[in-house]
Amino acid sequence: MTYTEKMLDAYPAEINIDHRQLASVIDALEACAQACTACADACLSEPADRLPMLSRCIRDNLDCAAICSTTAAVLSRHTGYDANLSRAQVQAAIQATKTCGDSCSEHSSRHEHCRICAEACRETERALKALMPQLEPTSATTGPPSQSAPQQQQPR
Amino acid sequence: MTYTEKMLDAYPAEINIDHRQLASVIDALEACAQACTACADACLSEPADRLPMLSRCIRDNLDCAAICSTTAAVLSRHTGYDANLSRAQVQAAIQATKTCGDSCSEHSSRHEHCRICAEACRETERALKALMPQLEPTSATTGPPSQSAPQQQQPR
Amino acid sequence: MTYTEKMLDAYPAEINIDHRQLASVIDALEACAQACTACADACLSEPADRLPMLSRCIRDNLDCAAICSTTAAVLSRHTGYDANLSRAQVQAAIQATKTCGDSCSEHSSRHEHCRICAEACRETERALKALMPQLEPTSATTGPPSQSAPQQQQPR
Amino acid sequence: MTYTEKMLDAYPAEINIDHRQLASVIDALEACAQACTACADACLSEPADRLPMLSRCIRDNLDCAAICSTTAAVLSRHTGYDANLSRAQVQAAIQATKTCGDSCSEHSSRHEHCRICAEACRETERALKALMPQLEPTSATTGPPSQSAPQQQQPR
């Protein structure tokens, strides 16, 4: 069990999403951010005749790393949960992993780091898409928004 | 003229958005991220009887700081521009500044730092909304996506 | 094997540090950053009578999260390696994990999230200290700094 | 007056550093981070025959951007101030701005974005060095560390 799941279990209020699923999404986002940071750097160390073909890939790596990292942080916070914000940021991460996964895939046969990074992007994109339906605000709400959203009930 | 605008002018290819407008959005995002980081910390130093009311505000500050900072970085990159990605991340930032602006506004009369931070959020939200129409892919495109998007033409 | 280690193995030049050790440091830093982000948020959801005692812990969590995350990124880059920079940032991370570990330890008996976070901080502090001697520039250098440092040889 | 300085003035406890100086350091760090992010991307859009010479510069830009941004956040927090942590992170930022300033300077005559970025790095390095003496713990302390450090007195 990763620290991520342990911390979800130790959160002092209810989180109305399956802890294991949420932890695996957060961990996927962080592994993807790490792969993208490493892939951007690996691209920079490719030989001079290869590097120019990789400039777009590097840019997409950098965006994807920053977006995945920010999204992991947003999904790690449950105090005053706002479904609209989580959904908008997850949507941006789905786009970032798709864009970067596409870029890296173009170079997978030539560069092992692009192949691995594309795999991390695709895996994270799938995990994010599977999470989206869980981030819907509940339909019947009686309290203020921060209390009726799926991830946060009343503090004990 | 800020470094942001100078750097846009020094970019070695065309950026098809007004440099001054884009620079002012990026600068607003960074000023907002800074205000949110400072507001979260100022809330933490409020007296014990005030702090519990500010926990949601702190959380929104932290999300808004991370999202604005990431969005500024995405908008500062023009190599291999992808309109879908920029738009999705800007959309998340619009939501983050709205959510955080609303949270801080609730405490504006009691806490000057919340009043100032709400102002930074509102200003950034307006700037982002004004930028959105400029991030549309151009309608008539002949080249591949990375060359037909508004922010990026062929490298010289 | 994590993506981190796979990416080190796929890097297109030599990295003169044991890949397994370096990967475990980077992974510890990211797990620690994640635990700190989650601990700050868990503290914010503690009851009103507990929250004021946790304000310093929250601040230390936020610093430690940002510093660990940045240090992981610095250690994930090997192009043009600069031992002085890596060492200075690792030193800052050693201090951040110590400070945060101390803060969280004070609340370990009352708050499980602080106990887990303190554990993540101590583990990361130990891993960073064990890495430091490996970041020394080699004594006998003939090339420019970027080529004589332990983490980077000539690109193949 | 920037939001940074306004937020320092609105902080609900004493900050024992001149607000204007501290604000100017934080603003310099954020302007430098922005310049570095933009310079890395501008380098990526340079022609194929120039790009390989810029790979180290891009790497230094990315480190410097992340480190400056993290350092700005650390210096923006005053709750439970820890002089050792601030000093260690500022030290890392001094090294990052020096390393990146040196890298960019090598390309200043060829690339305007490197010239501007080097200027931002040098300016920030100077501001950080001038701040260091202010981050010394006060010599005569009676309370616990968090109360005797220069940046933080007792909350009002």
From TrEMBL, chains A, B, C, D:
- Residue ranges annotated as coiled coil are none
Question: Per the record, where are the segments of Low complexity compositional bias?
Answer: 144-156
Which InterPro entries does the protein's record reference? Csp_YhjQ
Spell out the residue ranges making up region: Disordered: 134-156
Instruction: Tell me one Pfam family matched here.
Output: Csp
Matching entries from PANTHER family are given as: CYTOPLASMIC PROTEIN (PTHR37310:SF1), CYTOPLASMIC PROTEIN-RELATED (PTHR37310)
Q: Under what name is this protein listed? A: Four-helix bundle copper-binding protein
Read off the lineage from the record: Bacteria, Bacillati, Actinomycetota, Actinomycetes, Streptosporangiales
